[in-house]
Amino acid sequence: MSAPTIAHRAISVLAGVLLAGTALAAPAVATGHEPGPGPASSTTQAEPSAAVVYKGRVIARPAVNVRPNPNSGRPPVKSIPYGTIIELACKVNGELVEGNPRWYLLKDKSGWVAARWIENVTAAPHECP
Q1: Cα separation of 63 and 41, whole Å?
Q2: Which residues are CB-contacts of 121 (< 8 A; sequence separation ≥ 6)?
Q3: By CB distance 3.0 to 4.6 Å, which of 5, 97, 99, 101 could disulfide with 93?
């Protein structure tokens, strides 16, 4: 058997710290809460809110093409320059672009951009309905 490496020792120490921290953590206890209707007692899954704004940064140089559909089969309707922060509505799978099938619909519904050329600034948008 070989002697433990520095990496094995580090992992062992980190695991011990995590376990010790878990054992020492006190459970959260609510005081003065009356049971009844409200967000805490709701069991329905919330739909993505219209107030949520999904944003991405264009990383294609010199610009990303905006297409009428989630594929490159038709000419672009416009382009958006490198570095521009854009607002996204939702995502779908479409034509592969350098191995990435994801396409984002712009929030203003003016067209689609290949996700390969967008760096998410916020969380990625939800699937399109």
Answers
A1: 48
A2: 55, 56, 57, 85
A3: 101
Sheet containing strand 54-58, strands side by side: 112-114, 100-106, 85-97, 54-58, 118-120
Yes or no: say if 71 and 116 are a contact pair by the CB < 8 Å rule.
Answer: no
Please name which of 59, 80, 71 lies closest in space to residue 112, comparing C-alpha atoms.
71
* Residue pLDDT, tens place only, 66-122: 999 999 999 999 999 999 999 999 999 999 999 999 999 999 999 999 999 999 999
Strand blocks (E) in the chain: 54-58, 63-66, 78-81, 85-97, 100-106, 112-114, 118-120
Phi, psi values for residue 114, rounded to 5°: -70, 130
Give me the residues paired with residue 88 across strands.
Answer: 54, 106
Q: What pTM did the predictor assign?
A: 0.62
